[in-house]
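Record now logged underneath.
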Amino acid sequence: MFKKNISVTACFVLMFLMSAGTVIGQDAKSLVQAASKAMGIENVNSVMFYGSGANFNLGQSNRANGPWPRTNLNDYTRAIDFSQSASRATAVTWSAPVTGGAAARGAFTQNITAENVTWAQQLEIWITPWGFLKGAAANGATVKDDSLGLKKYKVVTWKTTQKSPSGKPYTVEGFINSDNLVDRVNTWIENPIFGDMLVQTLYTDYRDNNGFKFPASIEQKRGGWATFEAQILWANPNPANIQQLLTPPAPQPATGGTAVAAVPVAAPTAPAVKSEKLADGVYRINGAYNAMAIEFKDYIVLFEGGAQSETRAQEIIAEAKRVIPNKPIRYSILTHHHFDHSSGLPAIVAEGATIITHDVNKSFLEKALSARRTLAPDSMSESRKKPKIEAVTEKRVLEDEMRTVEIHHVVGLPHADGMLMIYLPKEKILAYADMFNLPPASDPVPNPPVVGTIVFLENIERLKLEPERIMSVHSLNPDRLATRADILKSLGRTD
């Protein structure tokens, strides 16, 4: 009777696995082989394709819950050699500056070699429809049934040989449709804002080049918005000149002279964190991105304490506590959501501080900072603290008997809708990000004028602020605090 129950239990387990659609071993292998045959890649080791498309700048959207900014790619060409784990892509770019003016021509180049071992780089090879199937064939894939809407798929999953910072392999899953074509591929990589960030690439409108199938349309999404798209005109398997396509051109010597061999120069050592006292209880914490520590009676307020990275944020926190000892950090004021200004926010959360940001950023940051972080655990996930975020609409004032700090929304800025700046009325100190830089001495009045600077000055005048010293998050050149006269001069004004 006991043995019979075991058999019945085993039968139910088998039925459950079948109903869940999970199949392993030979069935996954057969499916991958069938898809490889349908796509004509059984004997393909490399591929070259071309067309046009766009890149999108992750983490730099004008609005936190909006799409990433687009840069068009013309003459887009890409070559991939799967046997070398190598790829090279080139294109001509056109991008419009957020400060206004005409679009600028540039160049896009992406080189990936076997030495670029991180999954963040190698995924661009192995999540292509052809690379995905080759990776599945080599890495013990499994398969299950799934559906998206009314469409049914075989979902093939495999693990990478690359390991995440947590020591876990990355997961790759591809959706194979009823025609045995790869419809989409998902993988996840670590990101300081999104945590385990989904990278999803969609492949549609397949075309046929003598049995070799390629998607005419590609769209990759990160953080829910497009980061790359391409319209592929033609693809060629096993191009005879693959090595030439993968090799960057040699640098050309300057015209009219003899080429001189480049001398390697050691990377400059990052300066130790240091601070500068601006007033009693007010310190500029210097670095590639400047921050400010402001003392109140019972606590400390940071301005731009979460910029750049978790490591940098921890340095800012430590320096703030050194210059203002024995007080907790209660608030960190975020100028705007761009990732170079917010990637250190996990350290702010771990510290137990509340993030003050504009209202348009609040829901975005709450969702992003609450995401799973299994690939690269950070100080926030290890502390198990939840993000505390308070919103500003147009103005908020922090004050006690020791200090007053005004937090103002910058209205009408094309760079970011939710930009904040702070003003200390007693000390007449204003602090800001991404609106004004000292122009070169050789060209004191930009033509056309910088839109960000115009908007900055308009907001200072609208709010009737009277700053005597103005601190930029990005150090000016030469590095110093600016004045209202500097801003006027850059716009050709003296009033």
